[in-house]
Amino acid sequence: MSTAIVWFRRDLRLADNPAFAAAMKEHDAVVALYIHAPDEEAPWRPGSASHWWLHHSLAALDADLRKRGARLQIEQGASLDTLQRLLKSTRADAVYWNRLYEPAVIERDARIKQHLRDAGVDARSFNAALLFEPWEIATGSDGPYRVFTPFWRKARARLEVRPPLSAPRRIPMPEVSAGYSLDELALLPTIRWDSEFHQVWHPGEAGAAKALRTFCKGPIADYAAARDMPAQEGTSRLSPHLHFGEISPMQVAWALQELATNAQDTAGAEPYLREIGWREFSHHLLFHFPQTPQKNLNPRFDHFPWAADDEVALRRWQRGRTGIPIVDAGMRELWETGYMHNRVRMLVASFLTKHLRQHWLHGARWFWDTLVDADLANNTQGWQWTAGSGADAAPYFRIFNPVTQGERFDKNGDYVRRWIPNLREFSAKDIHQPWRNPDALRRSGYPAPIVDLASSRAQALAAYREVSG
Ligand code: FAD
Questions:
Q1: Which residues does a 6 A CB cutoff place in the pocket of ligand 1?
Q2: What is the pTM of this model?
Q3: Whether residue 396 has pLDDT greater than 80
C-alpha cells in the first residue's frame, strides 16, 4: 500500500486542491498534515487576527476530513524534522504540498524539497493559490512588471478558466499516532478582543463558498460602483478565505464565468476579476522583489524625510482617536472585526504616511497583527502603493484629503456613524468635519483633530518633492 503525506499550509480546502488531488490519485492512502511552525515565517510570523482565523479554519478542515473518513494530523515544531518523523512512522514515500510565495517560506520549502528528494522521497509542489505563477507573466524583455495595467492585460489575455477539481468523497487514511490537539497550538487570543469576529466571519471552505455564492447572487451586479462605498456590502469579503486558501482564485474565476451561463447580470464580473488580478500582481511583485516587505521598492524613498517616530500619534491612529472621522471609523472597524474596507484602508494609510509622516512600516505592522486577511503580498503592495514608494504608485502630489474623500464615498456619514456612535447626532454636512461645530464636538466626547489637515498636507508635499524626480 502506498501512502502520501499532504502537507497543508494555506490551502485549507479539499476542493480544487491540486496537491491533495494528486495524492489521492496516485496513492492508496493519504495523511492530511498541518505543521505549526510560525518561526519559520520570521520576520513576518502570522499576527493575532490571522491566528484566530487559522484556529477556526483548521477546525473546519478537520471536520470536513472526518466526514470523509480521515482527520487532520496536527503537529508543531520544525517542519523538516516533523515530515521526516512522519514519513518514517507512516511508511509514506511521498510528500505533496501547494506552493506559497513569501520569501522565508520559499527558502524553507526549497531546502525541504531538496532534503526529501535526496532521501528518495517523492517531494512535489503544486500551484493552488494563484491564477498564474509569479514568473509566468513577464515583460517583453523577460523582466518583472512594475505597473499593473500592462501586467493584467497580458495575464487576462492568457487566462484559461478551467472547472475546479472536486473534493474526494472518501479519504483512506493509515494508522497515525495522535499528534497535537488544535487547542494545544494556543492560537486564540488570551485577551478576548475577538468577540465580534464570529458575527462577521465563517472561516473554512464552506464559509468561503457561501461568501462567493452570496456575492454572485447580488452585490456583483453593482460591484464597479459599490466597491468604493464603505457603508455598503458592495464587495465579496473573500480576502481572508483567499489568503488561507479556503477557496482558489480559479474557483472564483469559474464562478464568474458561470454567471453568464446562468444568464445573470455580469456587469461586475470583469471589474471583480481585475481585483483578483491585483492580488496576482502583488504576488508577482513580492516574488520578484522579495526585499519589499521591509524596504522601499523605489530606492529614492530611502531618503524620504519621515517625521520622528511618534508613539502617541501612532497609538491614537491605531485606536481610532485621531479626530478625523473616516480614519477613526476605519481603524475601529479593523479593531472590532479584523477587516477594513479597501477605500478606507487607502485613506488611513495615506493619513498615517502623509499627514502624520510616519513610516509605512508602522502601519503595515499594525495591519499585519490585526487584519484577518493579513497577507504579505497584498499588505506590502497596499502600503507601498499608498506611501508612494511602491509599484504603480500614485503621483506624490495626490494626497488623499480625508474630509473630501469621506464626503464623496460616505456621503450620508452612515459608515462613520456605525463605527463612531458619539458622532451619531452630527448631520451629513458636518459629520466628516465635526470640528466645524465645536459645542457639539465637546458634548460628543470625540477628540479634536490630531493635526491640522492643510498644514500637514503642505509639509508632506514639501517632503515628497525632495524625493520625486
Ligand atoms: P473585493 O473587492 O471583493 O476583492 C476581491 C479580492 O481581490 C479580495 O478578496 C483580494 O484578494 C483581491 N483584492 C482586492 N483589492 C485588492 C488590492 N488592492 N490589492 C490586492 N488584492 C486585492 N488585501 C489583503 O488580502 N490582505 C492585506 O493584508 C491587505 N492589506 C492592504 C493594505 C493597504 C494599505 C491597502 C490599501 C490594501 C490592502 N489590501 C489587502 C487590499 C484590499 O484592501 C483587500 O484585499 C480588500 O479590501 C478585501 O476585501 P474584499 O475581499 O471584500 O475585496
A1: 227, 235-239, 242-243, 275-276, 278-279, 282, 342, 345-346, 349, 367, 371, 373-375, 378-379, 381-383, 386
A2: 0.97
A3: no
